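Folds vary. Our protein:
___
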Amino acid sequence: MNRLLVSLFLAAPLIPVSTTGMAQQQFDGRWTVTTIPEKGGCRRKHHYAVVVENGVARNASGQTRANVTGGLEPSGRVQVGLQRRGAQVDVTGNLAGQSGSGHWTIAGRIDCSGRWTAAKWR
C-alpha cells in the first residue's frame, strides 16, 4: 500500500502543463514535497525531492510511468490528475515564492487523502 502511494505521488507533484514560460521559471530549482495523510489507508508521512527546470518538473530520483493530466500553471496553481495501477490521484494546491501547499486524494486499490507542503531549497 505504501509503495503504491509512493509511486503515484512521485509522478504527481508539480508536473507542468505544456506551456512553459518565464512565469513558471520562478519555480525553477529543487523542492522538497511532504505528503501528510489525514484520512483512509495511508498512514505515513513521505518526503519527495522534485526538480523544476524551465518550468518543467520531474522527480529527482527518476520518473514514474503514469497517465498524467493538468500540471503547474504559470500562476503557481497546481492541479494534477494521474492514473496508475488502477488508482487515481488528484493533487491540488498553490506555489508562491519559496513554498506551497495543497491537498491530495487517492482512490482505487486504496482510498486515502491528506495535505502536502512544498519548500524550495535555497
User: Anything to note?
Assistant: Confidence is low (pLDDT under 50) at residues 10-20.
